[in-house]
Design goal:
The complex is a heterodimer of chains A (440) and B (146). Chain A has 15 helices and 11 strands. With 440 residues, chain A is of the alpha/beta class. A 4-stranded parallel beta sheet of chain A has the order 6-5-8-9, sandwiched between helices. Chain A is elongated, with a radius of gyration of 27 Å. By secondary structure, chain B is of the alpha+beta class. Chain B has a single domain, classed as Histidine kinase-like ATPase, C-terminal domain (Heat Shock Protein 90). Chain B has a 5-stranded antiparallel beta sheet with strand order 1-2-3-5-4, covered by helices on one side. In chain B, helix 2 runs antiparallel to helix 5. The chains are: A alpha/beta (440), B alpha+beta (146). At the A-B interface, helix 13 of A face helix 1 and helix 2 of B. The complex binds adenosine-5'-diphosphate, iron/sulfur cluster and magnesium ion. Adenosine-5'-diphosphate binds next to helix 2 and helix 5 of chain B. Iron/sulfur cluster binds next to helix 7 of chain A.
Chain lengths: 440, 146
């Protein structure tokens, strides 16, 4: 698998080359070139911000279509906890789970069940790794990717435990093989996801070589197929629930941290807030915190771009759903997990480096500082870069030129046309005096 | 930007405004991002940004702001933090862990633990304090790039 994979794509026919996405991107990964947005793969962390902001719907998340279900003899749905927050008047998660089976899946395995196991594993990890405090959650793939390219000093703080969805996939396949008697490859483990970041995780997981997940479906695609079956399911839901408050809580911000049963945590969500926290963490401005939960999306996974409901309403619905539920249904002593840790070490990828070596970087930084003084500082985006500084960096990298700046170009045009305008002025003057003479 | 022709380097200058806690840390954060773009090792970046942040905060809390000059050469990163504040009467005492003259309202913001100067010393390879009472303080720190 390539080192850099990203699942957000552009539909060129829909892109009008406006500057909304370049301005919004937290890693400055997008440029407008020849009137179309271009995503720089190494910079993209699949946060979905450009999908949210694009009025023309030209930014597309990639994920699998429901047809993928046909590729397998036996399918297991892995619903993300955020799925439960999408429905009105849902008081029993079993109704959704049963409806998934009525919709065509052979079985379901709640990701929230695996999340409870991860909560238990995390509690133990946090307790025994005081030297690494604060531990930073690693369940959101966007956060892991952000840290990988921008916060090298925080890599040792990342929780090196597989995300709940991966553990759910392993347990689900094992169960499916046992129950169906089929070969593992005949079984399709299909995750119902709130975001394209999870697609990236499945296609190019960083902490393991290969994911157990066979396909990623969008919550918004599955949602309409569940509404009718849910009515039927409500009459007699099957006992498919394997999670309680803790697991379902993972669907919104603070849920993962809550599962640690400790007060010494902070939970931040939304790219801007997350970056702020990471910057401060890097400068060791927080003390006495054991755990930092970070989610790329506002509100947590309920805010993912593949969801249907407004994240804050979904949050309220999740809360209502598990209000009277037991604390947890899945436990490690009854559901042990083999090798739940990361297999691979996460390596820092210095994608933002300007030069090939220190001397080269010194020259380029000076060039950038110099250019920043010459450029107008309007950050207008007309050059296709989000800020004047970003254009300066592109120029230093050899990817753009100073003339891409419309203001610089205008000045230049004024300069080269000034002899003509002078001529024109002289001509007008002459004409005026001739007219005067005529009148006299 | 002054680029010395003899040794290639980057010179960065910042003004630290007095009593503005919302802006304190802007300079060190800017330096941190530039060092990252230069491919400087994460460990060196960490030392520079922590030491410089502490120094910057001290200029805000104790000295009515000032200016900072950072010089990056292939050998080291040098930070010169200069202010026209009250000066430090007893440097040895100020360097002690936990010693602080920060007023109560500053402490309530979470600053003034008296660990700034000791940390600046710990995180840098060289540190020098020149201070004159009633005139000001200049703290010069260097972190070597190995
Ligand atoms: N730039 C400065 N100007 C004047 N006094 C300073 C300056 N920097 C530090 N000090 C003095 O040294 C003391 C210790 O500084 P430091 O170790 O950073 O602790 P803190 O800032 O938490 O008080 C300060 O309380 C202050 O009295
Ligand atoms: S917060 Fe959740 S939904 Fe949003 S990108 Fe991260 S994992 Fe995906
Ligand atoms: Mg201090």
């Amino acid at each position: 698998m390539a080192k850099f994979y990203n699942s957000v794509r552009l539909d060129e026919s829909l892109c009008k080359g406006c500057i909304n996405c370049i301005k919004r991107c937290p890693t400055e990964a997008i440029r407008v070139r020849n009137g179309k947005a271009v995503i720089r793969k190494e910079f993209c962390i699949d946060c979905g911000e450009c999908i949210r902001i694009c009025q023309n719907h030209a930014k597309l998340p990639t994920y699998d279509s429901l047809d993928i279900m046909k590729n397998y003899k036996y399918t297991v749905a892995l619903p993300a906890p955020s799925l439960y927050g999408q429905f009105n008047n849902l008081y029993d998660a079993r109704v959704v789970l049963t409806a998934l089976k009525l919709m065509g899946f052979d079985d379901v395995y709640e990701v929230s069940g695996a999340a409870e196991l991860v909560s238990e594993l995390s509690r133990e990890y946090v307790r025994t790794h005081e030297d690494q405090w604060p531990i930073i959650s690693s369940a959101c793939p966007t956060i892991v990717r952000l840290i990988r390219i921008r916060f090298p000093n925080l890599i040792p703080h990342l929780l090196p435990i597989l995300p709940p969805v991966e553990i759910a996939a392993r347990l689900a396949r094992k169960k499916a093989v046992e129950e169906s008697g089929l070969a593992p490859e005949d079984i399709g483990i299909l995750f119902i996801s709130p975001c394209p970041a999870k697609v990236t995780y499945v296609k190019a997981p960083l902490c393991i070589d290969k994911s157990e997940i066979d396909g990623v479906l969008a919550i918004k695609d599955v949602y309409p197929h569940l509404l009718t079956p849910m009515k039927q399911a409500a009459l007699g839901p099957e006992n498919l629930a394997i999670s309680g408050k803790i697991g379902i809580g993972w669907g919104s911000t603070g849920g993962e941290a809550g599962g640690l049963l400790s007060d010494s945590y902070l939970a931040a969500d939304g790219m801007e807030n997350v970056i702020h926290v990471l910057e401060d963490l890097e400068d060791e401005k927080f003390h006495d915190l054991q755990f930092i939960e970070l989610n790329a999306c506002s509100g947590g996974c309920v805010g993912g771009v593949l969801t249907v409901e407004n994240p804050y309403i979904a949050q309220a619905k999740l809360k209502r759903l598990h209000k009277y539920d037991v604390v947890a249904r899945s436990h490690l002593d009854t559901t042990p997990v083999k090798d739940p840790g990361w297999q691979n070490k996460l390596e820092y990828e210095p994608v933002f480096n300007l030069g090939d070596n220190l001397l080269d970087s010194i020259i380029k930084i000076n060039l950038v500082e110099d250019l920043c003084k010459r450029l107008p500082g309007l950050d207008c985006g007309s050059c296709g870069a989000p800020t004047c500084k970003a254009l300066a960096e592109d120029i230093a990298r050899g990817l753009a030129s100073e003339n891409d700046c419309v203001q610089v170009m205008r000045e230049y045009l004024k300069q080269i046309t000034s002899p003509f305008s002078m001529l024109d002025r002289d001509f007008q003057k002459e004409k005026a005096s001739e007219e005067k003479e005529k009148k006299v | 930007m002054d680029v010395q022709s003899s040794t290639p380097g980057v010179v960065l200058k910042y003004v630290v405004s007095p009593n503005d806690f919302t802006r304190a840390g802007e300079a060190s954060s800017n330096v941190k991002n530039i060092l990252k773009q230069m491919g400087i090792s994460p460990d060196v970046i960490r030392k520079v940004s922590i030491a410089m942040y502490e120094g910057e905060i001290n200029m805000v809390i104790h000295a009515n702001g000032g200016d900072i000059t950072v010089t990056i050469t292939p050998e080291k990163i040098e930070m010169v933090l200069r202010d026209d504040g009250p000066g430090i009467p007893d440097v040895e005492k100020a360097m002690q862990a936990g010693y602080s003259t920060a007023p109560e309202q500053v402490r309530s913001l979470g600053f003034g633990a008296g660990m700034g100067l000791p940390n600046m010393k710990n995180y840098t390879d060289e540190m020098k304090i020149d201070t004159v009472l009633g005139v000001g303080t200049t703290v010069t720190m260097s972190v070597y790039i190995s």
